[in-house]
Structure formats: structure tokens, C-alpha cells
Amino acid sequence: MNQIEKQLSKKDPEILPVVTLERRAFLDAAFQAHLGAELAGDLSAIVATYSKNGHLNFNGVLYDTPEQLTAFHRDFGFDGQGMIGGLDGEILQLHHSYDSVIVEYLIRGTAKVAFGDAPAGGAVAFPMCVIYQFDEAGKLASERVYTGLGALLPQPILPL
User: Fold this and answer.
1) Distance between CA 96 and CA 86 in Å, rounded?
2) What is the C-alpha separation between 142 and 131, in angstroms, rounded?
3) pTM: predicted TM-score of the whole model, two decimal places
4) pLDDT tens digits, residue range 85-131?
5) Could you give all domains of the chain from N- to C-terminal order, each with its CATH number?
6) What are the start-end ranges of the H helices in 54-141?
7) Degrees (nearest 5) of the Cα angle 59, 62, 64?
8) Fewer CB within 10 Å: N-end or C-end of the chain?
9) What is the CA radius of gyration of the chain?
10) d(CA 10, CA 18)
11) Are 147 and 126 in contact (CB under 8 A)?
């Protein structure tokens, strides 16, 4: 055990736990299970990656029942039926904390509805940051999504 691990083993509440290689592998497996279900467009499998009390918070809007989680993923376009078709993403940054995986993406797809200056049928791309927090069973306890859709909207209107 190195000096940092010895220090952390004292359970000092002001020191965050170390993300060991074993813990990182656990988090990566949980993240891959969720991401794999999303990439496959399998709504039931996506919802199954959440814990019993797990939730998704999308830019401040909470989805915390299986029905709401299913509707969100369908409406967004994960199964090809929502507002963005052909969803794909590039991971730009990926970080770990003891219970979370933090991912910065560039999301791409085809708008199935008009987004400001982006007409339906046009290609769209926008940034997204997601904090995936997992419980000890490897299920999503919390998925917090922050995205800037401003790139898809017309010029901002300043408040009066």
C-alpha cells in the first residue's frame, strides 16, 4: 500500500476514496452496459441499467420511473423513433470518481424535427456532458445530463 492509500484508509471524511484499477474496471463495466443498451436502441435494456430508485436528470428535468425513463429515451431518439435519428456520439473526455463516470460527448444525428435554424432532416451536432453515478450493484443511481442545444437554435433573443 502506497502513502496515499494508507492516508485514505484512515477514512478521513475530507479525503475522497481512491479510484483503484479494480474500481475503475467496475465503473467501466457498468458504464459500458448502459451505453451498449443505448447504442443498441433497446429501450427495455436501457431502463434495466437503472437501479430501482434510479433517475435521469436532463438539464433539470427529472425522469424517475421506468415509464418516464422509457419515454425519455424513445422521445430523444435512442430507438430511432424520436426527435433525433441515427444518434451517434464521440467521447471527448472520460473521467472517474469513486462512484461515477463523467463523460463529455459530441452528439451527432439527423434532426427529425426542426431545431431553430436546423431543419428537419438536417444533420445536427451538439455538446453533452453526463455524470453517471452507479450503486454497488453496478446500476445507475443517477444520470445527470447537461447539454447545450444553443448551437441548434437561432440567434439568442436578449431579455427586455
Assistant:
1) 28
2) 8
3) 0.84
4) 999 999 999 999 999 999 999 999 998 988 766 788 988 888 999 99
5) 17-147 (3.10.450.50)
6) 66-76
7) 145
8) C
9) 18
10) 12
11) yes
Cα–Cα distance, 2 to 126 (Å, whole number): 42
**Per-residue pLDDT at 1 exceeds 80:** no
Please compute, for residue 40, the number of CA atoms within 13 A of its CA located in the half-sphere on the CB side.
12
The model's pLDDT over 39-70, given as tens digits with 9 standing for 90+, comes to 999 999 999 999 999 999 999 999 999 999 99
Q: How confident is the model at residue 36 (pLDDT cuts 50, 70, 90)?
A: very high
Distance CA 61, CA 153 (A): 20
Instruction: Look at residue 160 and give its three-state secondary structure.
Output: coil
Distance between CA atoms of residues 122 and 138, nearest Å: 37
- pLDDT at residue 126, rounded to an integer: 87
Report the alpha-carbon distance of residue 142 to residue 57 in Å, rounded: 8
| Strand residue runs (E) in the chain | 50-58, 61-63, 84-96, 100-111, 123-134, 140-147
Confidence class for position 5, pLDDT limits 50, 70, 90: low
